[in-house]
Amino acid sequence: MFRFAIDRGGTFTDVYAELPDGSATVLKLLSVDPAYPDAPREGIRRVMSKFLGHELDAAQPIPTQQIESIRMGTTVATNALLERKGERMALAITAGFRDLLHIGNQARPKLFDLDISMPEVLYEQARSGSPSVVEVDERILLSEDGPLQGATGERLEIRQALDEAVLRQQLQKILDAGIRCLAVVLMHSYLHVEHEQRVGQIARDMGFTHVSLSSDVMQMAKIVPRGFTACADAYLTPAIHQYLRSFAGGFEGDLAGVRVLFMQSDGGLTPMDRFVGSRAIVSGPAAGVVGYALAAFDGTTPVVGFDMGGTSTDVSRFGGSFEHVFETTIAGTTIQVPQLDINTVAAGGGSRLFFRAGMFVVGPESAGAHPGPTCYRKGGPLTVTDANLLLGRIRPADFPNIFGENNDEPLDEAATRAAFDALTNEINAYMQAKAQETGQPLKTLTPQEVALGFVDVANEAMCRPIRSLTQARGFNISTHTLACFGGAGGQHACAIAQSLGMARIHISKYSGILSAHGLAAADVVREEQEPCASVYSEKTASTLFQHIQQLATKARDALVAEGFSEDKIIIEPFLNMRYRGTDCAQMTTIGSATRVSFTQLASLDPQAFLPTFLEQYKREFGFTIPGRDILVDDVRVRATGVTRHVASHVPKETGPAIQPSATHTIYFRDGKPTETPVYRFSDLSLSDRVQGPALMTAATSTILIEPNCQAQLTKQGDLEVIVGEGTSRRITTDLDLIHLSLFQHRFMTIAEQMGRALQRTSISTNIKERLDFSCALFSPDGGLTSNAPHIPVHLGAMQEAVRYQIGIVDNDLQAGDVLVSNHPAAGGSHLPDITVVTPFFRAGHAKPVFWVASRGHHADIGGITPGSMPPHSKSLLEEGAAIKSFKLVRGGQFQEEGITELLMEPKKYPNSSGTRNLSDNLSDLKAQVAANQRGIELLNHLMDEMGEDVVIAYMKHIQENAEVAVRDMLKAKAQAAREARGTTRLHCRDFLDDGSPIELTVDIDEATGSATFDFTGTGPQVLGNLNTPRAVAYSAVIYCLRCMIGHDVPLNQGCLVPVTINIPRGSLIWPSDDAAVVGGNVLTSQRLCDVILKAFGACADSQGCMNNVTFGNERVGYYETIAGGSGAGPGFDGRSGVHTHMTNTRITDPEVVERRYPVVVERFHLRENSGGQGLYRGGNGVVRELRFREPMVVSVLTERRSLQPNGLAGGGPGARGLNILRRADGQEINLGGKASVSVAAGDVLRLLTPGT
């Protein structure tokens, strides 16, 4: 009987088939080809035709008498999501939340994009007056004394019963518009499913053909990701079912009698009739993880999976059990279902190659399957595949003749060579111009050296997610095996392993089709899960375990019904655990991996989850929190029906020493052509040892064995490569454009890992969950070198903070010292943003060779109001603790007593308090110290690897490269201004709500690409808190410059070299040292960006505000910033409901807000028609209503409540914002832009944020 395992990828479809005679065969074909309607079916037809000895008619259904099983992983769901080609659908959501999924977490995906491009929601947008969203009149609330008990045991009340009559009218309008698919997403439906179930039943009775209930798809808290998941399910499942019907229709009897299983995102198989869209997103990559876990894991050595395909590369880790995540974002859609933890980077064989502003850039754009790389003969661009072809690392002879317009030609070497010649000429022309400008000769490059450079850059891009998956999570990367697979991975594996310090590579004999092979070896999985709200303790552990046993029984029974005997069923129990007050839940089992039979389950110790949780938490976050409650959010069981029946392959024990089948000219890292032996994988025996350099060809992949590496077979017939020291090209301090790109990646990786360490080790919501922090590296003079893309308002300001510290303590520092500061006069932004600065000393240097710093928003640092964001502060003393410079760590000792004294100092002043949360302050400061130390460790490693002088030189080169990019942009802006208006002088003036002017004149020197930013005319310092530290004004300038460059360049001090900034002392944006500034950081900073960008004509005003809201009492405290509209620009509309410019923090999910705080989120949706009119429309603001359930103090700190955001080039203004307090008795009060007020139970705060 035939057994097929098929992975339909984005570019190729891979087929692994076990044949009736016990042998196995493989096949690779294009996923999309006009020559056949369906690649998996065509693969089956070809395999059967070849084995049976006669051609099966492609126009007739394939006979199934000899087919035992078909297992598939497919990109049907992924492609439909990426291309937005799913089924037309509508959304039914609790009234007041119609645009919740549009707003999401309100953060923009790319920090510096003025044209904020985000994938649109999956439900159909309203057209011709037909609504695509049904606002369901119903409401469930958590209530301590409510009459209902939810799924977790929490008490609930029904505040609004389901209005079925209105619902039917609304649903009928959807049906009348021709929409037959519906997603139902109701607040707190994970606790109370009845309302969703009733809506679903009514919809089906009325004629909806597919209804996805969020409580069925994934019964977990957080309505936003649960809603996205339900929409994905409704959008994709009909498309999948249509494909399945089409696929089955190509076989006799529609595959009746054939066991057909599909791979889910969690790494388990499921029957075809249970395969749904929300669990199919990473179907193919999940099969690859299963494949390498079975092939490469030896029982002790953890494995990193490296799956390099045509459009992207997937990396993952296996240490004995599959690592799952429960919330990921794919194609702009957050999916909340169990998925294998797979990180994707946009660098694959089809990734495009660019030379931009002196930088070698790989991706993220891809050539795709059509037209594909240049060598595919369809007019495509240069890609990584072309680079490997030019370097001899792949041979046309090893590829089938499937290219060109008629799909019958070989790879086109000549076209690739010609394209690289043209690109090399462009690069050399740039280098010659650079040499003339600097007087320093630059070596010209050959096309092969250019191709090598792009391969190196691609490799470094692929190393970054591997480092994040291992080093950033506390694992030693050098102890891992690199499991390489995917069609393109074999050409890069040795170089990547050498870069990461990994000593061993495992390459399956099926590496080119490992996802297909993994499908053949995968098991059938059944997941059961239910929400929970229990504190984990000795008392509750037994009750929780009873829930586990109930879910295990349910999962076992389902697998038994599918034909599995109980001895073939394995149970894995989990509790989703977190500390109270945090949002970082850990899916926890007993021990590192608990896989038991159903009968063994009862013998497990219910108390054993705790030590595993504590161990996981400490490894992931660096600490535990003794004395704090541990909560259980979910109970989960994963039941596996074991089905493996992979044909074995025993390699030859011994034989004649392997001989090369050919030689081929290959370029290695020394850039010289090397005649390299070519071996066939199939000729290897266990006794052979292949020394690099060599090229190994297999049926579906090509493997490059680099010099100083050795390849040999394992007893299972797979290839093992022992990695030797790499022979890298000599790196000097002289500028090399290839190394410039590599160092940009390395510096960025260090800043990113600092950020990951800070997020891991911090304790406060602001840093750990809202991500209100930034990390960066600085040169010896304090100039910004590299930063991770965190919070824009911090970027330029941090540079000023580091330089201030250098100026006052530079001669009083030693290794082990760490400085802390938050004062606006010392480069601070506002007082809650505390900066921790660490000098990096190296042996033989009296002065620091680098500086590292982290800035985080602390929830409270004292002052006259909780949260340290007083709306009416008039002096800095009222805003909290102000620290110009203090040695937080002295000689390695944390100065807890000294910093505590500084944080409590504000209590000395009238009506003021010291910090109200000292323990969190201290914990977060220690986390910042740890993040900085992580940066120093990585810099030390980089200097050991590359040399001190080289690293310091490239720090300067990268700053100079950013300078080039800014100068090029300024020259282009000057030319455009001169041609349009006859002058290169730009000007803009705007006003704050209090009438204070912000004025900017920009004079650009077109010849040199330099500019003067003159803020003369800006109003004087104000009595309130809209004063802005000079450092924040620098942040606004550097941010706007980076935005206007329009492509990815490192953001650093070099951006400001061509710019002279003139700020009048004593003005609104250079106030006195004691001026109140809390509003300047969060409000005036936004208006500065509007003025700068409008002066350049880059875009209209954005909302000009962060809409700051704080509320609290003696028991709780909460702070949030709220989205609004983004400004339109030449060629693009503004985005609605998004954070803009100087902030990008997330907003807490409505269900989490209501669960943690005594408030009800009544509304959170877009503010219709608040965006300005024009050829390109401005974005809409949002409406947010909070109903308070107990007395509190509420503060709002906002702008654009008096003056509207302005349009550009004749475009209309956006709507001004409005803050309304509606008392419980119905009285409405306009709070104005800045207010602090006491509220009672039943009062409602209604914020309408500005449109643009």
Structural class: alpha+beta
Calculate Rg over CA atoms: 31 Å
Q: What is the helical fraction, as a range of percent?
A: 25-40%
Distance between the termini: 65 Å
Shape designation: globular
Strand line-up of the largest beta sheet: 20-15-14-23-24-35-34-31
Could you walk me through the main structural features you see in this protein, from its secondary elements to its overall organization?
This protein has 1252 residues and is α+β, with helices and mostly antiparallel strands. Helices cover 30% and strands 24% of the residues. It has 25 helices and 55 strands. Strands 20-15-14-23-24-35-34-31 form an 8-stranded mixed sheet, with helices on both faces. Helix 8 packs across helix 13 and helix 11 (447-469) packs across helix 12 (493-500). The longest helix is centred in the last third of the chain and has 34 residues, at 948-981. It starts with a strand and ends with a strand. Residues 226-527 form the Hydantoinase A/oxoprolinase domain.
